[in-house]
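ok, trying the design again with the full structure, not the truncated one.
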């Protein structure tokens, strides 16, 4: 999922997720595990990165909330990187490693909410989208 203010960051994550889905299918039978880690906010250096504070006035209406969160959130993120690392290692050591591992309550909540939103939108447009097949 993505939101205003994180377009470029999310684009790279989406590309890696697609690659990882295909890679998991390609190498799973060889005993190679693929894990997509989907972290929430963790106390890393990301929010302290000055490049996320670039301001373009035309985007104020859409990215100000994100800019404020990032600008004021460094050091207050709920996620503990050491616990995240332990969870990743546990997932990789498991007999059935998941393809996706959301980390942190904020990540789980956001992903579930996003998934429900996508499902609702697809259901609202299902008749239209299914009507695009050839009439045989």
């Amino acid at each position: 999922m993505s939101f205003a203010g994180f377009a470029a960051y999310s684009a790279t994550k989406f590309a890696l997720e697609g690659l990882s889905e295909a890679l998991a299918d390609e190498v799973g039978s060889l005993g190679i595990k693929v894990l997509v880690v989907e972290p929430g906010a963790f106390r890393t250096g990301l929010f302290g990165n000055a490049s996320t504070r670039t301001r373009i006035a035309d985007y104020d209406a859409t990215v100000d909330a994100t800019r404020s969160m990032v600008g004021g959130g460094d050091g207050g993120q709920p996620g503990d990187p050491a616990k995240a690392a332990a969870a990743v290692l546990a997932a990789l050591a498991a007999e059935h490693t998941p393809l996706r591992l959301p980390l942190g309550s904020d990540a789980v909540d956001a992903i579930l909410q996003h998934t429900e939103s996508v499902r609702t939108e697809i259901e609202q447009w299902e008749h239209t989208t299914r009507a695009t097949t050839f009439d045989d």
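Keeping the full-length input from now on. The beta strands are 36-39, 100-103.
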